Amino acid sequence: MTQSRYSEWWRRSTVYQVYPKSFKDTTGNGTGDIRGLTEKLDYLQELGIDIVWLQPVYVSPQYDNGYDVADYKEINPDFGTMEDFDELIQELHRRGMKLMTDIVVNHTSTEHEWFKQSVSSKDNPYRDYYIWKDPAPGGGLPSNWQSKFGGPAWQFDEASGQYYLTLFDKTQADLNWENAEVRRAVNDMMLFWARKGVDGFRMDVINLISKDQQFPNDDGSVPPGDGRKFYTDGPRVHEYIKDMYKEVFGPFEMVTVGEMSSTTLAHCIRYSNPEEREFSMTFNFHHLKVDYPGGRKWELMPYDFEALKRLFSEWQTGMQQGGGWNALFFNNHDQPRALSRFTDDDVYREESAKLLATTLHGLQGTPYVYQGEEIGMPNPKWKGIEEFRDIESLNMYRILQEQGKSPEAALSILQERSRDNSRTPMQWDDSPNAGFTSGTPWLKVDERYPDINVKKELERPDSILHHYRKLIALRKEHAVFTRGVFRRMDEGHPEVFAYTRTGEGEALVVVSNFSSKEISFRFEDKYWTDLSHAGTDKPIIGNTADAPALTQELKLSPYASYMWLTTSNT
Ligand code: ISL
């Protein structure tokens, strides 16, 4: 480990993800806004947050809550004005914090001017900004590719008799990155925000931008057989990203994270190793598919704990060896709450929330906290389909019934899997609508808000919120969080995830009981002998009142989780 390898500031940072629509409404229209975020910056600063990732606030018809951009350089009036945005940057910078914005350039909304031009005629100069194909030789869809939101990935345009590609909703048309004009226009747009003072970007599904130009049919030999193998980590993707780095990220010294859909470790090393000059770090989703039977999101099964641990371990070790860097996360706006998914969000809610935080924050990478996670917000209890807003959930509710499921069965799948689970309004206090809005919220507020809210969490010294604050501070104090070598230590234990991070004589030891049982756990001798001062050390953070010293055999109460800092012989 050389000193320079891990010297960048963002490796010791924690990012807070803001879903603006649900964060804080200052106008009473039921939708959160930029000024709402600015109002809450002191809260985030006290939590220890270094970077705020603000999700799309651009002009958009909002079919996919802003991931359908109609104008990349204007603010959607629902979220405020450009002046509000400038004020947000100023207020962040005044506090020594940074802003990361969302860049969505695999596709645009079909209401974007480029698409309007493109669809207007085959001869329009913008025609080639998107991916247009003739029907298959015998008629019908150009290929059997499926949209990630359900149904075919091709949409027919009557006027020209051609299809355009949409990997997500039919109103999200995929841009044609083979066209150098598109690449130049995207770089121009990113420079616009960089010059405004934006410090970094989160790049939406950026590993899907380069498609196999044959657009072949998927023969189904590799699951899920929906065509993704022809556009995921595609032929020219690294070339395109290197160009963005050269033109934008490098000159402005930006911090960047690429969202990588169905990616591989080998590609993520390339995307995030600094020598490659692409991104600072990557999100991958493999650990969040451990409850998808055969990779199918819309079927339920209990999650596979061993797979969760194996995936974390493989990515920790693999990225470390390859010089890559992980974005660490359990939650985001596309995932149900991890608290409800992997632990107990009821009887052991508080222990569980702290366990997930400790387990994740001890890993190598940059941790991301998704709004509400720091106060232990669970999935809400849904009562009926009319409460849902998410386009993917509404599509799937229909498709599941077309496949023969009853409305009740379809609803119970949405209860577990819908993206709306994480999108309900932020719970600030116990006043009406949890202090989110004085109007009618765009999506319902979870009924448990009188008990689960920021105000309550701030008042209790041993709250989930204070646990997060401590973890975020520890990462800055001890280099082992950034640099330590990962080693898994639980040997397939059915309830425990245990690992160390060692380096330069220090060892961080993390042990978490992912079950509602009281159990015992014993370190194998081969691990134990490496921990030289163990036996006396108390945890630097834990989630029970009686924190045990680090001993070879541990008794662990339900959802107990501890982190010790000791010395190592390695
Ligand atoms: O395929 C997946 C993981 O392998 C999906 O999780 C995929 O990465 C995800 O749906 C992409 O999400 C992003 O792009 C979407 C948008 O709806 C999401 O909110 C955004 O996070 C389309 O822009």
UniProtKB/TrEMBL annotation:
Where does the record place the Glycosyl hydrolase family 13 catalytic domain? 17-423
Annotated region Disordered: the residues are 418-440
Taxonomic source organism? Paenibacillus borealis
Q: Which GO terms fall under molecular function for this chain's record?
A: alpha,alpha-phosphotrehalase activity; alpha-amylase activity
Which BP terms does GO give this entry?
trehalose catabolic process
- Protein's name in the database: Alpha,alpha-phosphotrehalase
Which SUPFAM superfamilies does the record cross-reference, listed alphabetically? (Trans)glycosidases, Glycosyl hydrolase domain
Q: Which CDD domains match?
A: AmyAc_SI_OligoGlu_DGase
Provide GO CC annotations from the record: cytoplasm
- Alphabetical list of Gene3D superfamilies matching this protein: Glycosidases, Golgi alpha-mannosidase II, Oligo-1,6-glucosidase, Domain 2
Show the Pfam families listed in the entry: Alpha-amylase (PF00128), SusG_C (PF23915)
Keywords attached to this entry: Glycosidase, Hydrolase
Give the EC number.
3.2.1.93
* Top-level EC class: hydrolase
Q: Which family is it part of?
A: Belongs to the glycosyl hydrolase 13 family.
